[in-house]
Structures are given as C-alpha cells and as structure tokens.
Specification:
Length: 561
C-alpha cells in the first residue's frame, strides 16, 4: 500500500506530507484548490513527463517522495527481478527530484532510470482517470481485461502460443528471404564461393593482427630504437664518463673511508647494489643492441600480411573474429544453395508443422477465453446492476479469425451492452457515455479485485457524469472495493466522500501574497462539515449538517453488510 506522499516546491505546493490509510481514502476540496496537483505529483514520482514550469516560483527544484509498504511475496519477487532495493520490512521509497532541464529518480537511495521507475509503478499502483475510461472502448483493451480475468488458467497456454508464433514467423521470414530466382541464386552462389575462398586462402589466426602490428611498429621505427638504446648504453656504461664509471669511482671512495665509521658501511652496501644493478642493465642494453638488426625481408612479410588482413577487414568486418564469422555465414549460404530444393522443402515442412501447432494453441487459448467470457459477463452484469444500471444486459463476444493470428492468438473481444429494455446489445463504444464508462470501469475493477495483485488503486474523476442515486451506488461499490484494496479517490460528490475511511481536504490559501495548496486529514466532525459544504454550497445550515451526519451514518451501515 501507499503509506505516504511528500511534496516540496511543486506548482502551488510549498511543502506537504500526507499519510494514507487502509481502505478508502477520499480527497475533496473546492474547484481550483489543487486536487489535480496531488494526483499529478504521484504521477511525476512514477515517471510521468516533468516540465521545469512545475517547479514552484523562486525554488531551485521540486521534490516528490512516495513510501510504499509491500507485503505480498509475488510483488516483492517482481521488484527484486528489476534489481531494485527493498528494505527488509518490505518498505520501498521512491523519490524524484525535478531541476531546471533535468530530473533525478531514486529508489531506496539508489539512482535509477525513468524506465525502471515506470516498471516499478506497474507492480505497486494502478491509476485510473478519464483517459483510462476511454481506453476501455478499444478492442485490444477489452481482450486484455478478459485475459486478466482468466488469470493463471490462461498464462501457460498464452506463453506457449507466443513462443510458437515467434518460431513460426522466423521460418516464414526465412522462406520469404530465400524466395529468389535462379539467376539471382547463381550470382549469390558465385559471390559466396569467391568470398569463402578468399578468406580461406588468407588462413587467418584470431589475434595475429595485434602481434603483426606490434612487429611492424618495431620494424618501422628500428633506426630510432637503435639510436636511443645506443645512447642509453653509453650513458649507463663504464667508459667515457658514463654513469657506471662514476658509480665505480664512488664505490672506491666510500670503501677507502668506511673502516673509520661503522655508519658508512650502509652507504657502501647501497652503492655496491647500485653498481651491480647498473652493470646488469648496461649488459642487457648491449645484448639488445647486438641482436638489433633491420631485416628487410621480415619487414616486407609483415607489411604484406597486414595489408591483406586490413583489406579483408574493410570488406568483411573490422576484426578477424568478424571476418571468420562472415566466412561461416557465407559457407552456410553456399550449403543451402547447393542443396536449395531440399532446404526449401525442409523449411516448408517446418512452417506447416508450426502452423498446425500454432492453430492448436490458438484454439486452446480461445476456449479458455470463451469460458472466462461467460463468467466475466455474469459477474459484470451483477456489478452493473449494483451501480444502478437497472435493466442491463452485458455479454462478451469472442470472434476468431485465422488470418489475424498474432502473438496473443486469433481472438478479438467485444464488450456488448444494452442499458435500456428492448434495445439490442451493441458494442460499448457505440452507446456508453462518460458517466457510464466510469461506472463500467469501476464494475470491472470490483470484479477483478480478487485477481488483482496491485494493492493501491487511485481514481481520478471516477464520478464523472453521475449524481443522485447512481452516485450512492458508486459510493457503495467503492466501499466494497476498499475492503480488499487501498483506494485513493478524488471526488466532488458528497455521496462518495461520505464512504471515506480516511478523509482529506485540499485547500488553497494566500499568505504574504503567495498562493499555496495544502492537504490535511480531517477529524470526524471536520469531515461532516466538509460534506455539508459539498451538499449545501455557500450557506451551511443545521439542516445541511444533519443531512451530512445522516449520510455518514448510512455509509457506515452499508459497510457492515
């Protein structure tokens, strides 16, 4: 569940922190008080696009922090798969700092990408707004909802279907790629033969280019090397004032006086070590010089070999490994083209076998969907009646078409509904209004509640286009949903607000010529007064307050059933 929300320097919010409770959390406030900012801040923390204009005037940055408490082991496993930190008690802290021109996301103190945050959000929270209601009109969304309802029974068949489809498409693409005429095949065979032979004749050894380049570098700079080593040999030698000659004289001098002072023995030993090292170094330099001879034939061989390898690199790949891989690929092509008829026939047989298996899996998936469609339709009808769709008919139509096979099968789902007696069932997109869509979405969420692993649901404008008795029915349904989920809901309807387990007020204040939005939890009497405001408008009379109290009592009683 979402434990808390902390916001600083965002739009009209100076600094505020909210601790949410279990069940139904209701947010209310005057129009323009900043209710959308609260939901917007949650969206920002979960990876929504951040604009620098969101930073409060005069501030350097905006900060949003969400704290979740995760108890379900399945969710914890999914978070660990993302390699994101979770505290031992299941606490997940998600933070986003928005600055001029950039933003920074952190989970558990570790910097993460926006992509990782969005993946985390899909595990922890589900946000529903008007755009979500509109997505319900799309066939793909309706099929997704049906599959979600089918749950575990559909998971394994769909996984196998997807794998089979991907193998089938690979074979299909291979057949299309090899669909060339005889003349083209002859040309490509001839070219492949030439390229394979050219690489074979080079007899490449992986890594030899690096060794050749070292040899070439040494050979081409032979004169510079010889001049430098000769000078070094002279400077460290024992003739013509070299370092060895100077150290030798120093050894004689210190040895002559070492018997007079015991401390000088250490000096003598150090000089002897230096003399020995210098002598070894000088002999090694002499040995190197004696073997240093420019070999014109070797230079020519190295240069030609490098030229050949670089030529092949330019044609087939920038490393010997890539050249050899290209050779293997062309050899495979040769083998195919030399036995083309047999190869193509083998592909066709594989394609037919995969098509047969694919259709079998599609049929299996379709059967599960059709069975689930009947069950979901019955549950939806009951939920819709509870939401004041008095005489409603609801069905899910599954159409299967082999020519439209995809990774999810060959089914298309259509939610069919009739909200008036005597009217034919029609697709949802043809008859549902905004208010009806919000109720249908709520009905779906209620039906899917037992199958949904996500604990926290946020509803923004769930009450669009509804009022009166329907609003009370929606309120009751949200109370039921709140028994198994944590709900956070922004509403302007007192019927829904009355059902709150925890009630927050969002208000706008002006202090020192600065406008600020703040949110605070209401006590029982304050909640009644807020309901009265929503019921009575500008003038709150005792009768309005009594109506508000009665509404709260009715809400409490409805939760007990």
């Amino acid at each position: 569940m979402l434990v808390s929300l902390y916001v600083k320097n965002l739009a009209l919010i100076d600094e505020t922190e909210v601790y949410f409770g279990n069940g139904l959390n209701i947010l209310t406030g005057e129009t323009g008080a900043g209710k959308s900012i609260i939901i917007g801040s949650v969206n920002l923390a979960l990876g929504a696009k951040a604009e620098k204009e969101m930073i409060r005037t005069g501030a350097e940055y905006a900060l949003v922090e969400l704290v979740f408490q995760v108890e379900k082991e399945k969710q914890l496993e999914e978070i660990r798969k993302l390699e994101l930190p979770v505290e031992e008690d299941g606490t997940v802290i998600l933070q986003r700092r928005i600055m001029q021109g950039k933003s920074l996301c952190k989970v558990g103190g570790e910097t993460v990408s926006v992509r990782q945050v969005r993946a985390l959000a899909e595990i922890l929270i589900d946000i529903h707004g008007q755009h979500e209601h509109q997505s319900l009109l799309k066939a793909a969304k309706q099929l997704e909802i049906l599959d979600e309802y089918a749950g575990e029974e559909l998971y394994e068949p769909k996984r196998k279907l997807k794998e089979c489809y991907e193998r089938y498409k690979e074979i299909e693409e291979q057949i299309l790629a090899e669909d060339v005429d005889e003349e083209t095949r002859k040309r490509e065979t001839s070219l492949a033969e030439f390229e394979v032979q050219e690489i074979e004749e080079a007899a490449l050894i992986d890594g030899e280019d690096a060794e050749l380049e070292k040899s070439y570098k040494r050979l081409v700079n032979g004169q510079k090397i010889q001049e430098a080593v000769t000078l070094v040999h002279q400077l460290t030698g024992y003739e013509n004032g070299g370092a060895g000659d100077a150290v030798g004289r120093a050894v004689k001098e210190i040895r002559a006086v070492a018997s007079y002072d015991e401390a000088l023995r250490n000096f003598e030993e150090q000089l002897l070590d230096i003399d020995s090292l210098l002598n070894d170094y000088n002999r090694a330099a002499a040995d190197y010089l004696s073997g240093l001879e420019f070999d014109g034939e070797l230079f020519s061989q190295v240069e030609k070999r490098l030229d050949l390898i670089n030529h092949l690199k330019a044609k087939y790949g920038n490393t010997i490994g890539k050249i050899l891989a290209y050779q293997a690929k062309q050899q495979e092509k040769l083998d195919r083209y030399r036995n083309f008829d047999a190869y193509r026939q083998e592909l066709i047989i594989k394609e037919a076998a995969l098509k047969k298996e694919l259709l079998r899996l599609c049929e299996k998936v379709s059967k599960v969907r059709k069975k689930s469609a009947g069950s979901l339709a019955q549950s939806m009808k009951k939920a819709l009646v509870d939401l004041n769709f008095i005489d409603v008919a609801f069905e899910i139509n599954i159409q299967s078409a082999e020519e439209k096979i995809g990774p999810g099968g060959y089914d298309q789902a259509a939610f069919m509904i009739s909200t008036n007696p005597g009217e034919d069932l029609k697709p949802l997109s043809q008859i549902a209004s905004g208010g009806e869509l919000s109720r249908i979405m709520l009905a779906l969420k209620t039906v899917l509640a037992d199958k949904d692993e996500i604990e926290t649901l946020i509803f923004d404008e769930i009450d669009t286009g509804i009022s009166g008795k329907t609003a009370w029915k929606v309120s009751e349904k949200m109370g039921i949903l709140g028994q198994k989920h944590q709900l956070i809901c922004i509403t302007h309807l007192p019927q829904i607000a009355a059902m709150a387990d925890t009630h927050f007020q969002i208000e706008k204040t002006v202090s020192k010529e600065r406008t600020t939005t703040r949110i605070r939890e209401l006590e029982e009497m304050e909640s009644v007064e807020e309901l009265a405001r929503m019921l009575g408008g500008a003038s709150i009379t005792e009768n309005v307050l009594n109506n508000a109290r009665e509404m709260k009592d009715l809400a409490r009683k409805s939760k007990q059933y």
